[in-house]
Amino acid sequence: MTTRMPSNGLAPVLRIVMGLLIVLAMGAAGWLHRSPWIVLLATPLFTVLYALGKWNAWALAWRLGGAKRIVLSALVTLPIQAVLAGVFYLLGLGLSMLLAPAAPIAAFSTSDVQWAAALFVVAVAVSAAIIRLESKASPAAPELMVGTPSPEPEAEPELDIDPTPLNHDTFFESPGYWRKNAAREALAQRGTPVEKPPFAASEAMLAAAEARLGFRLPDTLRELYGRMNGGYVGWLYVPLKRDAGPFYDDWRGAFSIDYSSLAPLAELRTVAEHYEDFTHEPEDVPAGADKLVVLQARYGDMTLLDYTRGPHARVLIADFDRQPGVEPVDIAFENFDDFLAALRRVRPERGVARTVARDLGPPLGEAPEQWRASMFWGEAQPHFFYLNAAQRKDGSEPQLTADDALIAQTEARLGLRLPGALVALWRVKNGGGVSCRWVDIADGEGQPYSEALRYLMPMEYLATLAELSDRIVFPPGETPWKQGFDAPQRLVVLEADHGRVVMLDYRHSGAQAPAVLVVDDLDRGPPREVLRFERFDDLLPRLRPKSIGYEDVAKPWQPPAATA
Questions:
Q1: Residue 161 gets which letter from DSSP?
Q2: Spatial CA neighbour of 426 closest among 398, 404, 458
Q3: pLDDT more than 90, % of the chain
Q4: Nearest to 456 by CA among 371, 398, 512
Q5: Model confidence over 445-479: pLDDT tens digits?
């Protein structure tokens, strides 16, 4: 990480000088055998100077909690500073006693008070100068001026923040990983209806969550839940200063970076409830925890709705895992609308050449035919459908490879003939994660490569879209998937992941040459056909592996080394 010096180089110099002055002053008090009571006299001095050194944090604490929060923070800081003052005093005293062991300890006197007062005046004056210099160099107010170039041209950017504000349409990136995958469960549990959770929250769901929490959610947040009941929002940041530049220290991650999701309504809870998971000690729980609602939390790193001041929630981004005395709240917004307006994403890299394409291998069509199936699947263990069925110990696990009997049984059940090139792949591995996923077709958003396949079903789980749709109990207000297509009984689902489906389309093709459709996302309204290939034989040679592994594929398969 690049470290930047403030634009005014005098401030850090003054900080170093002031720190040395305080340390040397306490050491000198010990060296001169002043009364040990001077340590207690110096403790408030150390505390005040510590606060001045952390001016922005203590100023934020005042804005967030007023005098009460300042007093509580000071009570935590005082004993720590007392220990520090005592250590420096004892160091000076110890060194002096090595040279003059018989020298007496002086009695406490007014000169000690005068000494402390003089040091206090000097230290406060210097601290005020430091604060003034640093405020000129980098204003602390979190007002947005995103994209302002850094005044240090020699500094290397760390974050390329996109200045485009988020809105209702761009807030979510995808459903959350925690969401029940009704499509896959319906394929795996043949004959067992699967209840699909609502994609968007209804007014009844919002009212129930608010009744449970005891607070009304902000209107804009309610509207977002009305579009998707929680989900993945990606890596989001808010600026910590007015002229935030492309540096990590200028920005704060929101929604617990690495989790980067808005919790669904059913999982919203207070900080007090969150802490019940791992402690029953009242002193461990932050103040006002029963009035702080967690939108996302990764241990103590939280994005919160703050109702401590009344029914209109502020938004806080805090880290309660910090050491005692350190202000946990990094930034506060007066309302959710201000918070949404401040959120930013990192700008996508220009061109796929710097992202996907640099990791892609050659298309399967360039590999010898005998290697293509192994390259298509990659190196992997048995897929989770097999492992889950094996755990049930009921004999329902699919075969690891497809044989003639399974192929004939599957085609008879579907009433359709499967493409020969696809059947050849199942003979090598009967479903699972796919290593060769990418195809050189633009996705309409400036990326020249798109994902075509991800996770093929084992042959035992293949079903038509009509069958899959009938196995799912859709929530009120959602249209069953089969109603979005003509002749859904002629669409065979090869893979399904939430609302994304890949299907063989027999509606307008010959019996042995169906088209391949990639549809994304069935949960967000009318079906949107992302990709279409007239035959599977046209798609397979164009698929390309990626050099990095996936959750279900350890790594792409490598052909055996040539031998002499």
A1: B
A2: 458
A3: 41
A4: 398
A5: 556 778 899 899 999 999 999 999 999 999 988 89
Amino acid letter, residue 518: V
Closest to 508 (Cα-Cα) out of 484, 491, 529: 491
**CA distances in angstroms from 202 to 174, 219, 227, 498, 504, listed in the order given:** 19, 14, 9, 19, 34
Amino acid type, 258: D
Query: Angle of helix 37-53 relative to helix 10-31, nearest 10 degrees?
Result: 170
Say which residues have a Cβ less than 8 Å from residue 68's Cβ, sequence separation at least 6.
none
Which one of 219-223, 226-230, 354-358, 454-458 scores highest in mean pLDDT? 219-223
Judging by beta carbons within 10 Å of its beta carbon (0-12, 13-18, 19+), is residue 319 exposed, middle or buried? middle
Listed in sequence order, the DSSP H helices in 379-453 are 384-392, 404-414, 420-428
Residue 105 has pLDDT above 80, yes or no: no
Give the whole-angstrom CA distance, residue 216 versus residue 230. 17
Six-digit token pair at 186? 């319906």
Give the Cβ contact number of residue 477 at 10 Å.
9
d(CA 425, CA 476): 39
Q: Tokens representing 206?
A: 């919002």
pTM score over 0.70: no
What are the pLDDT digits (tens) for 31-78?
777 777 777 777 777 776 666 555 555 555 544 445 555 566 666 667
Q: Which two tokens stand for residue 440?
A: 């050189």
d(CA 543, CA 150): 43
Task: Quote the CA–CA distance of 344 and 351 in Å, as a whole number.
Answer: 20
- DSSP SS3 for 494: strand
